[in-house]
Amino acid sequence: MKAFKIVLFILLSISLSCKDEPVLDTTQDQTAISTFYLIRHAEKERINPDDADPELNQKGLGRAMHWAEILADTELDAIYSTDYNRTSMTAAPTSVKQNIDVQYYDPSTIDITQFKAENLDKSVLVVGHSNTTPEFVNKLINEEKYFAIDDSENGTLFIVKIINGIPSVEKLIFNCNCPS
Q1: Helix axes 85-98, 58-70, angle to 10 degrees
Q2: In which order are the strands placed within the sheet that holds 33-40?
Q3: Going residue by residue through the chain (180 aa), what tens digit of pLDDT does each one get?
């Protein structure tokens, strides 16, 4: 009987030690982090109120350069802008500084699910308008939290982080002592 117990003990020990050990898959990172930096275009020319596509004024050009400096240490993967002079001029200094071509988007037709998928695990700058920028943030976070930016405010920066599908947002205001 004693020999039977020893054999049984050995068999159990062997079967327990031969079980498949869980293997960690280190080929893929388990955390997906997407970061979106959303800004409104810089100050625009207001000389002609009938001009639907004005360029930036002197202060706006300074602010656009200021945004490039603020984002200089942020390794961007993509830059998006609406197809207007004021937004593309705002994106231009950052585009040049980081050697990234600006991609144009239409805020009224953007598929937010596709946009998120295309920019998964990336850092992205999005330049829009006083109404489209907060709307874009709301779409990214799937919540109606932000509303149109005051027409006199051009220094708002939204930082949306989506970590494993869970969004968070910070809203910052940057003053620009740019000459007018």
Answers
A1: 40
A2: 102-104, 78-81, 123-128, 33-40, 156-163, 166-173
A3: 444 444 434 444 444 444 444 444 444 557 999 999 999 999 999 999 999 999 999 999 999 999 999 999 999 999 999 999 999 999 999 999 999 999 999 999 999 999 999 999 999 999 999 999 999 999 999 999 999 999 999 999 999 999 999 999 999 999 988 888
d(CA 124, CA 13): 54
Q: How far is CA 58 from CA 45, 61, 87, 127, 173, in A?
A: 8, 5, 14, 18, 20
